Amino acid sequence: MGPQTAVELNDASVTLPTLAELGPDLNHTSRTQQWVTLGRPFVAIGVYIALAQLGWWPLAPIAVFFVFVTVVTATHDVVHRSLGLSRRATDWWLFILGGLLGASGHSYRATHLRHHAVFPGPDDPEGHPARMTFWQSVLQGPVFLAKLWVWSYRRANDGGAKAWLLAEASVAPLALIIGFTLWPQSIWPSSFGLLAYVVMVINGAWVFPLMTVHLPHRGYGETPLTQTHTVRDPIISRLFLELTYHLEHHLFPSVPTHNLAELAKRLEPALEKHGVVPQRLFFRQRA
Q1: Is 230 within the bounds of a domain?
Q2: Is residue 176 within 8 Å of residue 198, measured between CB atoms?
Q3: What are phi and psi of 9, to 5 degrees?
């Protein structure tokens, strides 16, 4: 499956420039940027390992937060084929990146592409928290990724797809078993660090339905421009590596994350014309 280039605008009153008009360079990913995107998660994990070895546990959750952000960003670009990877490399990177969070990259691909295809329609397991209240989406956290995996497995149409899903489902339990096995062997603090990491990523994954679905789509409308929000805040956008440009991403899914800020800048006149008001959490737009 190739990259999806733009959303279908079924509402005749909504007219936006095409990606060709906005600039074909928006789809460009250099080899350097490719490896920056794929390498950042391992830098974050390296920082976590260093903190664990030094026993600086109060700082460890910060490192894990950046593991989350960098992994989600990289996986997102791999799913949308915007990094220029081959089909085989895509499969392996989905496995590796998902494994860093004890999650299933192939499940994420299946459900995320489904979300882009049908939201706000039916049979969209990823988009379901958008219809929930704030607290319902929070309570959905512990079972959300498991539900996505079950949905993906039931719809996997060949043995290869199911094999990837089963392999990915085994990563977190295997890491826990290894951690508990090594802990009594006085391999310290490596074994405890592994256990602490697995516990943090499992608990951290519980915010997925709130942070990646409910908040971006809260109060969604029926047109492509009202189905999700965009956040234009210099701190938040950089902190989350441009994933806050959710509307721009839904409109042009093939644009890699590192180009979303530029896409937002070029698209802004058209969005303003249609009354789209970006959300700003800390820095308000100057009058």
Answers
A1: yes
A2: yes
A3: -95, 90
Distance from CA of residue 244 to its chain's centroid?
A: 11
pTM for the structure as a whole: 0.87
Lowest mean pLDDT among 115-124, 235-244, 249-258: 235-244
Residue pointed to by tokens 């249609």: 274
As a three-state string, the secondary structure of 213-279 is HHHHHCCCCCCCCCCCCCECCHHHHHHCCCCCCHHHHHHCCCCCHHHHHHHHHHHHHHHHHCCCCCE
Residue 34 within any structural domain of the chain: yes
231 bridge partner residues: 279
Amino acid identity at 261: A
Q: Number of folded domains in the chain?
A: 1
pLDDT tens sequence across 258-269: 999 999 999 999
- Residue 10, domain member (yes or no): no
Domain span at 140: 19-273
Other CB atoms within 10 A of residue 10 CB: 9
Contacts of 189 (CB under 8 A, 6+ apart): 52, 53, 55
Q: What is the phi/psi pair of residue 165, to 5°? A: -65, -40
